[in-house]
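Subject: for your reference before the review

Hello V.,

The reviewers asked for a structural picture of the protein, and I figured it would be easier to keep everything in one thread rather than splitting it across files. Below is the amino acid sequence we used in the manuscript, unchanged from the supplementary table.
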Amino acid sequence: QQFSADGTWLVPNHYRTALERNVLGGWEFGGVWILQTGLPFSVYTSAGFNPVYNSQGQLIGNKGGDYNADGSNYDVPNAPTFGNHLNGKKKADYLNGIFTASAFPVPALGTEGNLGRNTFDGPGYNNVDFTFEKYFTTPFFFGERMKIELKGETFNLFNRSNLTGMVSDLSNGSFGKATNQLPPRSLQFHVRASF
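And here is what came back from the structure prediction:
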């Protein structure tokens, strides 16, 4: 789910003198705001099958992954007791881990788990980009009028940390945590002259 809004405002240029018009009028401001829910992810294990035998040499369990022992190290566990969705998680929860590997029950020996794919959501996204620009003109430039464009852009205006990189592999020590983030605030300026 995503909400986006954008707008542009051109500052009125009703000034009496040329100096006021050039300095105060004609500025253009714009921005884009995007709010988005987190992307879904699947909990799985990439660990291999690790059999447990009793004293008679009979297979009685599995300490690893590959729950159905088919040789493919991508198996899902059973659904946890809290279900297949989590609400109200904050940024700190994603940094510390929204759940632990022990919360996901291991399926019966030789079977695949019943947890579906894309059952949980990662951290959401909230970003504002801002731009401003202004055109100036000079009375002469080697016999021609010259137009100067000044433009500035700010990405992630409020410097919000938008987390990414959810670790969903049960065998990973960072399971349940967001381990990366999108770029912080950055600014860039342009100056262009045309004649």
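For the response letter, the relevant points are probably these. Residues 98 and 176 are 5 Å apart (CA to CA). The chain is about 5% helix and 40% strand.

Happy to draft the paragraph if you're swamped.

O.
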